[in-house]
């Protein structure tokens, strides 16, 4: 919880099974990133795809070798949104978007069949109409 800073050492508890699953899914994750995050870039256009894949697997294997715990000065910043006041959330634009489209859903980490965030909702535009008086119109016009 809270924020991890890169100038404080933190002891992380690692689960070997999680890293094994990540290593098994590296190619699938990279393909997803190319398709969704880079706008449909074909794998064939990436010159060093296999080299990058190899580096990722090597790094994950190195970390997995340090199980069950690792101490590091992380470059991970985790914001505990539940602990923030609403004005901080809004001023830092941490609120999720209210109206999403297919592309936003496709790139979301919660895009799973069992997610309940895919409810179709009817949106109703609520507004107040205040027409200008002739004096206000003339003032704006000048």
Brief account:
With 142 residues, this protein is mostly helical.
Task: Characterize the structure shown.
The chain is mainly alpha-helical. The chain has helices at 16-24, 26-37, 49-64, 86-91, 102-106, 134-141; strands spanning 10-13, 69-72. It has a two-stranded antiparallel sheet with strand order 1-2. The longest helix is centred in the middle third of the chain and has 16 residues, at 49-64. The radius of gyration is 24 Å and the shape is elongated.
Record the SSE blueprint.
Elements: E1 10-13, H1 16-24, H2 26-37, H3 49-64, E2 69-72, H4 86-91, H5 102-106, H6 134-141
Antiparallel strand pairs: 1-2
Helix pairs in contact: 1-3
Number of strands: 2
Distance between the termini: 56 Å
Task: Based on Cα principal axes, name the global outline.
Answer: elongated
Give, in spatial order, the strands making up the sheet with the most strands: 1-2
Strand content: 5-15%
Average pLDDT, rounded to a whole number, is: 78
List the total number of helices.
Answer: 6
Rounded radius of gyration (Å)? 24 Å
* Poorly predicted sequence stretches spanning 5 or more consecutive residues: none
Succession of helices and strands: EHHHEHHH
**What level of helicity do the residues show?**
25-40%
Structural class: mainly alpha
For the biggest sheet, the summary is: 2 strands, antiparallel
Descriptive key words:
mainly alpha, 2 strands, 6 helices, 142 residues, 39% helix, two-stranded antiparallel ribbon
